[in-house]
Amino acid sequence: MKEMELKKLKRADLLEILVEQGERIESLERQLEEAKAELEYRYLTIEKAGSIAEASLKLNGVFEAAEAAARQYVDSIEHLNQKQEIALAEREALSKEKAAQMLANAENESAQMIDSAKRESERYWSLAQEKIYKLIEAHSDVLSLNIEESRNDASARKDESSQSSIIEE
Q: Is 0.70 surpassed by the pTM of this model?
């Protein structure tokens, strides 16, 4: 397993790997001790056998046992690697799913906030328009009085200027 992949694993996963490796080491050490004992036995047997051909036939079993142990170790490492790759793929898929869900939630909340803001601004605008219309309606008589006063003032000024021009003539 690569160093970067190991750094990404959680402490519990790393401990689990260490425990599995420790058990595997103990098992292999026992097998090695058994192989050594078998080898010692074979050496004694060879010494007793007296014949090289006879000894090589007996040693063949030791080599076969060692090869089988090595094959078993490689198989267990490959199996562990496959388990780790599957776990990694599952975590990656879960992370992607969570990220997509978070993005969807954020987009949904954003749309809701925009809709709420639009409704609120429309409500304020309606209230402002209503107040403006009421104000105009309440003061419409004042406006009409001001218009009449302006007309009367203009008319009075016209009459005065007419009279002054007559007097001057």
A: no
